[in-house]
Amino acid sequence: MANRVFDRLHDIGFDGRGMTRPSYGEGENRAHALFEDIAREHGLEIRRDWASNLFITLPGRNRDLPVVMTGSHVDTVPCGGNFDGAAGAIAGLLILCAWARAAFQPERDTTLIVTRAEESVWFPVSYLGSRTAFGLLPAEALETPRSDDGVTLRDHMLACGAHPELCGKAPVLDPAKIDCFVELHIEQGPVLLEADVPVGVVTGICGSTRYRSAVIHGQYAHSGATPRRFRSDAVMAGASMMMALHEDWKTVEAAGEEMTLTFGVCQTDPAQANFAAVPGKLDLVIDIRSRDEALLERMNTRVIEQARRVEAEFSVRVDLGPRTQSTPAVMDETIQAQVKELAAEMGIAVVSMASGAGHDAATFAGQGVPTEMLFVRNENGSHNPDESMEMEDFLLGASLLERLLRKRAS
């Protein structure tokens, strides 16, 4: 069944090179409908909340007890892979369907949530789906345009049958009524591959500070006729700023602290920049991540300081644009211990590790829900078409998730 669902998702999202299922787009809608159809075939309960997050539940014997939850997302970045998000959603679906086929009824409800819009590349709002599920989305966020078409979140919600008019009014998840949330996900880096271990037990999720639309404004000028002292070179200012922040990163690591720094976009204007011109404009994005909130604030201060420095040194103007951020999350130590105990019983090798990427699990943890993540080994990183998860590793991770959910739900 797992291969069949992965194949169906591939058919839904394939763009000729990788997977493209935009948040609140046709591909994400079709993926949610696929999960709903399979759940209905197995007699599982199905509901959607006001934001069209999908909830699939196997009822427990005592429905008054706090619910056990698992889940992930099925939207992708542009030209992404077929396992990011989908692996966790499929694992949860497999478990509930298997329990239903075996007529197994847990003591408490067990629910899979397939969240909307986890990939914030489409709407610059972190954890959009899980935040709507808890009623944490401010109403003004509904006017955020999607990056590819400029249509607002509100209108995209309406187009797929959601009810944005109920934002702030509809019933939402109550943390006190959730026993735990466990998210399975592919690892998006090389740690498990290097360790030759199939499953990771996540200790924490990094937070972030980001500038998604920074612009350095200089002055276009003739490349041969303009001496350095007369230049307002946006590219040189950007290069100086990036290298200075990179040196800060090295200093942080030398002090034993953990963070990452990425400039995922750095480009001149293709319509005006050319071989014979001093570049007058540079678009830049800055992405800093760490599990240390104080370190994120320190680095944010350094970004601002470096922006002011290059303005003076290179005669440019730096517009950082709006800052977006997410809060680090700590995973539940009791559940981590349960995972390791179960893994030992099952003969599955695991290692403890942090998550450098953000996940909906961070929202659950931030609301006080006991939360854990399981990583499955994956080659070639993530957010690219070459994600390469072995089915054997996936089934090991899903089996471990099943044992954990069964333990918590019983």
What does this structure look like?
There is one protein chain. This protein has 410 residues and is of the alpha+beta class. The chain has two domains: 2-206 and 329-409, Aminopeptidase (3-Layer(aba) Sandwich); 208-326, 2-Layer Sandwich (Alpha-Beta Plaits). The protein has eleven helices and 17 strands. It has helices spanning 2-13, 26-41, 86-101, 128-133, 153-159, 191-195, 234-254, 293-314, 333-346, 361-366, 391-409; strands at residues 45-48, 54-58, 67-73, 110-115, 178-186, 199-205, 207-217, 221-222, 260-262, 266-268, 277-278, 281-290, 317-319, 323-326, 329-330, 350-355, 371-376. Strands 1, 2, 3, 4, 5, 6, 15, 16 and 17 form a nine-stranded mixed sheet that branches. The two termini are 25 Å apart.
What's this, in brief?
The chain has 410 residues and is α+β, with helices and mostly antiparallel strands. It contains 11 helices and 17 strands.
Topology-level CATH name of the largest domain? Aminopeptidase
The average pLDDT score comes to: 96
The shape is globular
User: How many structural domains are formed by the residues?
Assistant: 2
Oligomeric state as shown: single chain
Number of strands: 17
CATH architecture of the largest domain: 3-Layer(aba) Sandwich
Q: State the secondary-structure class.
A: alpha+beta
Helix content range: 25-40%
Strand residue percentage: 15-25%
Biggest sheet details: 9 strands, mixed
Number of alpha- plus pi-helical segments? 11
What is the succession of H and E elements? HHEEEHEHHEHEEEHEEEEHEEEHEHEH
CATH superfamily of the largest domain: Zn peptidases
